[in-house]
Amino acid sequence: MRHEVASRLDVASRRAGRAEGHFLRPSFRLARAPFAKGAALAPIFSAVYPSQGVEQILTQIIENKGLGHLLSVTLFERPKSLLRYHGARGNSGFSGTDTIVCATARQKESKLIARYTRSEMGRVWSEENKFQKWLDVELAATETLADAGIVPKEAARKLRERARIDVARINEIEAKVRHDVIAFTIVVQESVGDPEAARWLHYGLTSNDVVDTAQALLVREASRLIEKGIARFGEILEKRAWEFKDTPEIGRTHGIHAEPITFGLKVANWYDENRRDAARIETAAREMAVGQISGAVGTCTHLGPDIERKICERLGLATAPITSQVIERDRHAQYLSALAIVAASLERVATEIRHLQRTEVREVEEPFGGEQRGSSAMPHKRNPVSSEQICGLARVVRSNSLAAYENIALWHERDISHSSVERVILPDSTIVVDYMLHRTTEIVASMSVFPERMLRNLNATQGLVFSGQLLQDLIEHGAPREDAYKWVQAHAMAAWESETSFKDRIAADANVRKFLDEKALAHTFDLQRQLQAVDAIFARVFGAKSSVAR
Fold it and tell me: Is 254 annotated in the active site?
């Protein structure tokens, strides 16, 4: 697609003169052009974007005076989505500094690559939503000040009715003034259309009063989606835990067969961690749901603590008891830590599924679609790629939490070293965790479980997994511990190396038979005896719900 569009751009450019087109992203929306001439640009864009109406937009904003020879046309994506045209000759009427500002649709939907951005979370972190939250803070402040008799009520009313955001226009102005909040206030004031009312916008506020408080609103929205994802994952874990409550499986320590468990116990263990994840996120999100309107150094000099409290209440936020100019970043570090722990919990699940899907184990298999292919070279492959993806993304979130720790120490009352970091780590981490929750839920809900293979693997060592119970029973029936340990270990090593029956070897040992008769040995090697506490453990994990979930 990229090469095709670039080629079409070259063809169209030659029709208008001589040009070279360098294309980076095909999806954009033309917003504004600060020059007046150069309509010959229209056929270039209409050739590349025949269905997007760009030619009509251009002809509305560019006077048709013709175009000589374009020396170069360079399209590139920048943080502010600028589309810049460098140099021209003839009577085009614009210079190398003229710009067309474009709002890139896919960029606005996602701070991370689209592969991991689900639509709801993408909207939370869109430029439109960010600026809308800034406006929400501004309007809450103005209306609170109007209630206090500081701002004229008519001005507050007009601001509420008329104030609007225009992302492309904000980006255009920011490219000049190099200050996003100033660009934002200029555009909102323009939208009001009444200088008398507009002059009260941002009254008594500093930039970070708006940005930090609005960020709390954004994090609250993102946290609600993550909390929903955690709850949904918990429901699936509970369902599958009960489904396999009594399905025997070998428990492994250090990757080696240990003692019997059930697969339901394994999943119930994940569920219990999921509940702690939910509590951690709830606590961290609550710590983040605070606002501040405390001024340039946190002294509340211009509006006062009471106004600050009322503005935050209007927004549904708690008020930070004390700030510098910024809300202290230990809150953010706690929040990123909670996200990192959620990601690690999901990684734990994914890692286990990856191990259990190995060919020589094959007790569980993540979903494999009908059209899915595992390898370009080996058609038989069914790789745990989704679980591997979860493990990889967990590393990203963990790394971001470290950056949040680095943000705690700022110079004096504030610097902006934290700001650039948070523009990345807050959107990216919530986006990734939201995706990981959704994807892991799908994996666990639809994974294949093979009880017969689990039982076969449990029995593969021919009774060795009962060695601990045998040792305990011998001691209970009077055998000296050291002697009993030596007898059991000797037979276990011999059975392991010769791949013979551990139970048969034990039954033929006179030392053992002196303490355990045939009935006692049958009790020692009884699988159900090993799993007798499963019901009690499930009752502890699921509580009163256990009788319903059954």
Answer: yes
